[in-house]
Amino acid sequence: MRRSVSVDEDGKVRQAKRDPEGVRRDILSAAMEEFSLNGLSGGRIDEIAARTRTSKRMIYYYFGDKEGLYERVLEEAYAKVRGGESDLGLDALAPVAALTKLCRFTFDHHRANPAFIRMVMIENIHHGRHLLHSEAIRGLNRPAIEALESVLRRGQAEGVFRAGVEALELHWQISALSFFNVSNVATFSAIFGDSLFTADGQEQLSRHVAEMVLRYVLSPGHVDFIAQAAG
Prior knowledge:
By secondary structure, this protein is an all-alpha fold. It folds into two domains: 64 residues, Arc Repressor Mutant, subunit A (Orthogonal Bundle), CATH 1.10.10.60; 157 residues, Tetracycline Repressor, domain 2 (Orthogonal Bundle). It has twelve helices and two strands. Strands 1-2 form a two-stranded antiparallel sheet. It is globular. This is TetR family transcriptional regulator.
């Protein structure tokens, strides 16, 4: 935890005040783990307080109530994935390279962040009620579609991507392929074995998701771009 110590003139150790922003980050991190494992109704504020060595009173001071904390955790989860997308520098890449990089990032992010997937699944159980209340989340997600629209426009202007592909639908397709890989790992493995979920299997799936998306988007005569993207 973020607690520093100092020694006074009498040689007594004194605890310095904890950094408020550090406390907030610690609470959000613990709350992500708690809510992603147990849901909103099953998540316990007492457990979050214990993990962060703070108090329920302090948690409520920062976040209002349990639902306020849950909503803030959702915002942080979406901010992380959207922040990662914005760091990809897609505008500086050729359209095929940009779309490939976005597909690989989405697949690999979801794979590395199963708590995010569980939070999205839990929010769907709640019919998206907390997402609808969060203007911050809507603001975070709009740029994701705008960035994809920009990649598609550049690819279409160069004749590399076919006309008629909609950014929102393409975002859905990329998300669906990447989401299923995490959300259904337990049931899929139980039925078919776990060969797709080894390190090699996941790397192959990540490449093939990008290839599937490119095959859908590329204009006729530009399929050779897939091999270039893979290389």
